[in-house]
Amino acid sequence: MLTLAKHSLGTGDRFGRQAAAQLSAFISARNQGIHLVPVWNKSNREHTFIGSEPAAVRAAANRAVVELGWSEPYYVDADHINIDTVDRFIAPSDFFTIDVAHFIGAAPEVGAVEAFVSRHPELSRESGATTSAITAIATKYLAATAEAGRIYRHIAARKGEGNFITEVSMDETDSPQTPTELLVILAALADERIPLQTIAPKFTGQFNKGVDYVGNLEQFAREFRDDLSAVAIAVNRYGLPANLKLSIHSGSDKFSLYPIMAAALAETGAGLHVKTAGTTWLEELIGLAEGGGEGLAAVKAIYGKAWAQRETLCQPYATVIDIDFARLPDPAAFADWPSDHVVAAIRHDPACPAFDPNVRQLLHVGFKIAAKMGTEYLRLLDEFQPSVSRNVTDNIFRRHILPLWSPVFKRS
Q1: What pTM, to 2 d.p., does this model score?
Q2: Domains of the chain by range and CATH?
Q3: Among 388, 369, 136, which residue's Cα sits nearest to residue 280?
Q4: pLDDT tens digit string along 28-55?
């Protein structure tokens, strides 16, 4: 069976030009004794918006691996797939994030809840929850776990069991899962005989796109550690893969959480998968703006069009962004900014007075504007590649990998 290493990082690359720059960050990490597995992830929704195909992600990853001489494992993730979208990913992907959040709360099959509770009397003992509480949790989640089983078997029938890594995602929902709910979910997934290696629950607080975590840090710390315990119990109790670990979605830029997670990982020896996506697209804009000339002009034009379409662009992401429209700079004013001001506004440096989280979040969801530019945007990426690549690599390595994993590998 393909086995995902203890620590891994998912990197999104919306326009398929930054695989080598991203991989360079992993090489820099390896040179410092931090061994992470790269996973290139791209969802069906992103492919639809960009007009790309899943095979292009595999091709870009393979090129980067050959170009940079990477000899360690790497994977391509069919991110947030369901039964309707998975088939186009079967051939090029070897990592599947099965998203069943929409099935949470759906009615399970008749008799399924009673059979599950009868089969798992240990859940009350392990969690301290009453049988009625376990019954309520099972009622809420069994349809979702059954759907995960259906999708897993669909993939396995086509790729063969053991030829891919399975993640189950339940994070894109309104309510966070408690550690007890996570334990019940894992028991149910084990019943479905899914050899999942990562599980993505929804945590308390806001994991907004491209900016830091918003919420109670102490509460997150307790929840994260309790979830690590739930995973360990499930591995020991239900025969799930020994490398099963938590997956943090929208994990990019959650700078205030990295020390919390690093401490827990170092103390427990647990693994972690973190998914990033739009952070690379924003670094492309920073690289273009830094380069000046046509690059800077393109960033200003993208901002102007995103500002004009702000309500339409933001609506699909309403639950994962927090933009104060009244504080967004007028496009005419933005157009007059020099290169260093534009760069400082976009770059996620909370200590910088010019950093503007409203601008950053609007541009995060504004990638559709660049997608409509077609080959013109790709030409600019190629022309300004040195500046773009430097920013992409530095962002992943210095702002993400080092603060999250350096303490873990120093302890090990």
Answers
A1: 0.97
A2: 7-278+401-411 (3.20.20.70), 280-392 (no CATH)
A3: 388
A4: 999 999 999 999 999 999 999 999 999 9
